[in-house]
Amino acid sequence: MKIEEKITIVIPVRKIDPLTEICLEEIESLYPKVNVVIIADQLVPYSMKNLTQLQSKTTNIADKRNEGVSHSETPYIAFIDSDAYPCEGWLEIAVEFLESSSKVAAVGGPNLEHLKCDDNQRIPYLASLCPSVGREPIIKTSSLEVKTIASSNMIVRRSSYVKLGGMNSKIKTGEDIEFCYRLGREYKIHFLRDCIVRHRQRKFSGFVKQRYIWGRGILNVFQKTFPYYSVSLIPLISVITAMILIVYDGVNQTQYTLYTIVFYFLVIFLTVISVTKKISEIFLILPYALSSIPLMGIGGLVSLVKGDISDEYKGYNNNE
Fold it and tell me: Which domains does the chain have, with CATH numbers?
């Protein structure tokens, strides 16, 4: 079978914008015969062979992916974000690995620096490599069995996806983590070093909002995946601990909060210099690395008080 007979590319979007156009141009260049399904809130005229645009029934990204899968018939589905684009060999490497083992139901790979967007991606990309910011594995071999892969670069067996009922639309953010949790109970998931997309990272203002929204979804993901993704509670526990220390220091005239802040800064600083040794880059990356955990923790704390994140999620633009 030819690659176009094996796989369909599904892209959930608000609407086709300049970043989506870059994505589609690269797909058309690499895979001119592969069917592409876009599920959009707003349909925009765009001419491309083998492209199908569908009006989304909901703004929920899990629903959009499920809808895209329902309009495909190929054995495999490739998910990619609208602000990313594939590199050469993306689909071939993924399909070859999936065909080599029936026990593997999904594969993914690195989200490298976007090279075609207008804004400078160097600092946001380097920040994404810091452990406090990113969640991609460090891989030295060609493949690694993992518990989760990002839906911005996920290739999955259609039969397995359908069998599990697709992604959970009740989860507003972190839906890929919860899906991988269910998938991993029956199948294997692998991260492939050479299955690459280039993904735009957000500038700092968008990063702040993204991390807060992710934090707002922490408890929902934790409840659905316990104890699989217990690590997701680290930001929330960290913020609550900091609040307790501040109160304790105020009552007892101690300085534990100061010591904790200094220790946290040193740990984050060491992770940043493991990514780059350039002084100018270090100080530009630090705001991302230092704020990621607190922002997610604050989001989680707000969820404890307010619960559902639907209203905030509606105003959240994935491409900010």
Answer: 3-202 (3.90.550.10), 222-314 (no CATH)
